């Protein structure tokens, strides 16, 4: 078990309600929880894959939870100001909901994903109804950047969320204010959410290159 997973596990106490996000780190945490002496945990998840993993591990899953003590997740990038982009998995609407419903939102990340500021390597991703596609494209055009509908990897079609919405990857414009940029999309009719998490992250468990872990806390 990595030191990062050990640090996450140490934050959890018997009787807690917790949210587990998606990805490999979270799967490892679920396995660690299942092997621990923790009892009476109630677990929810924004990820259908994580729900399946938890049930396989005989952990108690309660998707009706509307408040949790802790929520753990990963991300594509997180800044020193504790803002994050969670674009890749395209479940950010549910992840953001769970982040808003918890007392403490904790990100498990590697050092390579902890950045001074967002770069153009990770897009801002938009979940939207089909009718909003031209509106998203219109805003991207104003900023002289690209908005690309994400293709599915398992069939000849578009990636769609569990709610049937399209996923649009928008390249961050050079020098643009990412918060204003995201806000422009969030105000469009038919846009469900963007992958920018601002003001939601409380704690970062940062895994360094040598396998050590630093626990960073937001102070503002």
Describe the structure.
The chain is an alpha/beta fold. The protein has two domains: 3-116 and 198-211, Rossmann fold, CATH 3.40.50.1360; 124-194, 2-Layer Sandwich (Alpha-Beta Plaits). It has helices at 3-10, 24-35, 48-56, 92-100, 133-142, 178-186; strands spanning 17-20, 42-44, 70-73, 77-79, 84-85, 105-110, 114-115, 124-128, 147-149, 166-170, 191-194, 196-197, 203-207, 213-217. A hairpin with a 5-residue loop joins β13 and β14. α1 (3-10) packs across α2.
Task: Provide a short characterization of the protein structure.
26% of the residues lie in helices and 24% in strands. By secondary structure, it is of the alpha/beta class.
List the helices and strands and how they pair.
Elements: H1 3-10, E1 17-20, H2 24-35, E2 42-44, H3 48-56, E3 70-73, E4 77-79, E5 84-85, H4 92-100, E6 105-110, E7 114-115, E8 124-128, H5 133-142, E9 147-149, E10 166-170, H6 178-186, E11 191-194, E12 196-197, E13 203-207, E14 213-217
Parallel strand pairs: 1-2, 1-3, 3-6, 4-7, 6-13
Antiparallel strand pairs: 4-5, 5-12, 8-10, 8-11, 9-10, 13-14
Mean pLDDT: 95
Quick one: CATH class of the largest domain?
Alpha Beta
Helix content: 25-40%
Strand content: 15-25%
How many beta-strand runs? Answer: 14
Helix and strand composition category? alpha/beta
Q: What is the C-alpha radius of gyration, as a whole number of Å?
A: 18 Å
Major beta-sheet overview: 6 strands, mixed
- State the order of secondary-structure elements, H for helix, E for strand: HEHEHEEEHEEEHEEHEEEE
| Tally of separate domains | 2
CA-based shape: globular
- The N- to C-terminal Cα distance equals 32 Å
Regions with pLDDT < 50 over 5+ consecutive residues? none
